[in-house]
Amino acid sequence: MAGDASGTETYTTDEALSRLGFGRFQALLLGFLGTGWVAEAMEVMLLSFVGPSVKEEWGVSGGAEGLITSVVFAGMLIGACVGGLGSDRYGRRAGFLFTAIVSGVPGFICAFSPNYATLLALRFVVGLGLGGSHVLPTWFLEFVPAENRGSWIAAFTCFWTLGTILEALLSWAIMPILGWRWLLALSSTPCFILLIFSSVVPESPRYLCSRGKISEAMLVLERIARMNNRPLPPGTVTSEPKRTDDNYDPSVTTVLLMTEDRLDEDTSTKSNRKNTFQAFWSRDLIRSTLLLWLVHFASYFAYYGLVYLISELSSVKSQPKDSSLYINVLVTSFAEFPGLLLAAILIDRIGRRVTLGGMILLCCAFLAPLATQLREGLSIILLFCARTCVMGGFAVLHVYSPEIYPTSCRNTGVGFASVIGRIGTIVAPLTTTALLENHRQKEVVLVMDLTLFLAGVACALFPLETKGREIH
């Protein structure tokens, strides 16, 4: 703790959260925001089941079927920017309401689509809402103590996998009996549940401090203290960063403080909106930003490329009502849990960069043998191991990405990185399916491995290790 010019004791939000610990408040917040990510995952995963049924009912072409997925990803590109900028400008709660309302309401209305064009337009709007879903883990991160921030964000990522499993089970139960319209309607209900209880979740104290709303931030911290049954430090919270810390490498700490000082100075001006947008292009952040973009692109490209590879090599040629389609999604989704567990164990022990780079390069190693013809059983095992690693990498990425940026531009920086990642989701099916149709599995594996290898190298070039450090 330190003192201000008037002699009053002050402390940072990180010092307050470390004193309050991870308690009842954070556990309830994890359940609430985690449910939000379950809802987003369900909206994305239902595309795997709805497309074939829509094609059968309305007699559209295969390209038109694929367009239902493509317009969602196109909407997510725009939504990631809007959600990031909006939550940095108007608050984390505003970003949450944007993603919940814009994905939930049109998602429900989709069930009543009279024709293909209407469904396409509504799914695009749903994509706008889904694009802002990165606000959820960032909002949660800003309430978690620094010492175990990595492990809990990795645990938060489990909710995405849980959402994919729940959607597969819901589809398995609903589609053969009631059809795709009921699936669309029921898949949107978690968003409405979240909206009902959204008023009970407070604004991030970090965001409030960054906007100079110290008294409001104190009210939030006092609420956390009551719920966790722990006292706050004496004094008042401040947005000023801690100036000295013996636990960090001096060179790294110096860079961090330079970045924070410049950004605090920049964002205090009247042109705050412009500076928020430009902050992650500053000299101190540009290197991390560009490297983060490469890792996001590679991670999304590899994840969706693996989905297509698994489907191809497991020879799943299912009809919409065939149970093997749902079983395949369930089994491959369960393959993600070991990676999430491994990331949660390692991230606060060996650091973000080593864990992220290790996961990516392990995925690269598991994919490499698939460039040759292998037995189907061995191929599936290697693909499942690769998916385990890429999901573990995603868990680390969800921790490291927001930690790189200060509160003033955190969601903007993460949002633009997410945009680059979404481009990877668009490129992956185009590249993978085109090559697999021409029986060029070797080329598919080589492209994915090259992309992952470059991302692994990028992890070694990140200038900052954020394990255990305060974020501002």
What's this model, at a glance?
The protein is an all-alpha fold and 472 residues long. The chain is built from 21 helices and 3 strands.
Percent range of helical residues: over 70%
Q: Hey, roughly how much beta strand do the residues contain?
A: under 5%
Characterize the main sheet. Answer: 3 strands, mixed
Q: Biggest sheet, strands in spatial order?
A: 1-2-3
* Radius of gyration using CA atoms only: 22 Å
How many individual β-strands?
Answer: 3
Protein name: Major facilitator superfamily (MFS) profile domain-containing protein
Subcellular location: Membrane
Domain Major facilitator superfamily (MFS) profile: 29-467
Keywords: Membrane, Transmembrane, Transmembrane helix, Transport
How would you explain this protein's 3D organization?
This is Major facilitator superfamily (MFS) profile domain-containing protein. It holds the Pfam family Sugar_tr. Keywords: Membrane, Transmembrane, Transmembrane helix, Transport. The chain crosses the membrane at residues 27-47, 67-87, 94-114, 120-141, 153-174, 180-201, 290-310, 325-347, 354-372, 378-400, 412-432, 444-464. It is a multi-pass membrane protein. The protein is mostly helical. The chain has 21 helices and three strands. A hairpin with a 5-residue loop joins β1 (2-3) and β2 (9-11). α8 (149-178) runs antiparallel to α16. It is globular, with a radius of gyration of 22 Å. The protein starts with a strand and ends in an 11-residue tail after the last helix. Mean pLDDT is 78; it is low at 242-271 and 315-321.
